[in-house]
Specification:
- There is one protein chain.
- This protein has 267 residues and is α+β, with helices and mostly antiparallel strands.
- It folds into two domains: 8-68, no CATH class; 92-255, no CATH class.
- 31% of the residues lie in helices and 19% in strands.
- It is built from ten helices and ten strands.
- It has helices at 14-20, 24-32, 47-51, 71-87, 105-111, 122-131, 136-139, 164-170, 215-223, 228-236, and strands spanning 8-9, 12-13, 96-101, 115-116, 141-147, 150-155, 175-182, 186-193, 196-202, 252-255.
- Helix 1 (14-20) runs antiparallel to helix 2 (24-32), helix 4 (71-87) packs parallel to helix 9 and helix 4 crosses helix 10 (228-236).
Length: 267
């Protein structure tokens, strides 16, 4: 027997959790038992309001005078569905990436002091790097791709695109969301803005928002749960149009100069 069906844990009720988990039958049963879909919580995202961003926006009756999603929120929902469709088939286990706002591939190459790889047979060379993924040559070889809104630096086989010395240089004057999909421990994300670390040891696509997160972040976390690549792109405003940056077909393959990319030299 539940004493209070609207009891909160970590700032949210059981009804909110059911809506967030996309379990409309559970949510409907809780509401029928007396749970309040309009109870204020999570930076304004009550269970009822969050349901408007779900695939079942008619789950609860909307009382007169209760606002629907704002135009910006509706656009975020539509973009999330588009981005998810573009990226959901990517097998990203073991991949690393840096999504960078506001700079193109050429500027990314310049910031990294990288040189464009000159291979007679790119397909064969990529296969060779896959086969020895933790060699120095493999770790220092990155893909760079122009994407509407910025660019993506990626590496399908190892952690190279998320090394601190890479993401810090890329973040100069802008924001960079980096991730390594560690096969042993899961997604490891970081946010850098103009070389400063804003977030570390993050779990993009994990689907759990803190109760003190912003309204924008709570919505984003909900929309991209289970899709880390789309989350990273959305965080910095990249409008990915295809999965090439993450499927081994970038615009350019480049090679970083040898050096220490785990400490940062201030550039």
């Amino acid at each position: 027997m539940v004493d209070d069906i609207d009891a909160e844990h970590d700032g949210r009720t059981a009804l909110w959790v059911a809506v967030h988990a996309d379990k409309p039958d559970n949510a409907g049963a809780l509401a029928a038992a007396g749970a309040d879909p309009r109870r204020p919580m999570m930076a304004g995202w009550s269970p009822g309001r969050l349901s408007l961003a779900s695939l079942t926006p008619d789950l609860f009756a909307v009382p007169p005078g209760v606002p629907s999603l704002s135009p910006a929120e509706s656009a975020a929902v539509a973009e999330a569905r588009r981005l998810t469709a573009v990226s959901q088939e990517v097998d990203y286990d073991g991949l690393s990436l840096s999504c960078v706002a506001g700079i193109d591939a050429a500027e990314a190459v310049r910031r990294l002091d990288a040189r464009v790889a000159e291979w007679d047979d790119a397909e064969s060379m990529v296969e060779q790097l896959w086969g020895d993924s933790l060699s120095e040559e493999a770790v220092l070889t990155l893909g760079v791709t122009d994407v509407p809104g910025g660019c993506v630096v990626s590496q399908p086989w190892a952690y190279g695109a998320r090394m601190p010395g890479v993401s810090r240089r890329l973040s100069i004057g802008t924001v960079c969301y980096s991730m390594y999909a560690n096969p042993k421990s899961g997604n490891q994300g970081s946010i850098l803005r103009d070389r400063a670390v804003e977030g570390w040891d993050l779990h993009p696509g994990g689907g759990w928002a803190a109760s003190d997160d912003s309204a924008e972040e709570i919505l984003r976390t909900y929309l991209y749960q289970g899709n880390a690549i789309a989350y990273c792109c959305a965080y910095v405003g990249l409008a990915l149009t295809d999965a090439r940056p993450f499927s081994g077909s970038p615009d350019l393959w480049v090679q970083l100069p040898p050096g220490d990319y785990w400490s940062y030299d201030g550039r």
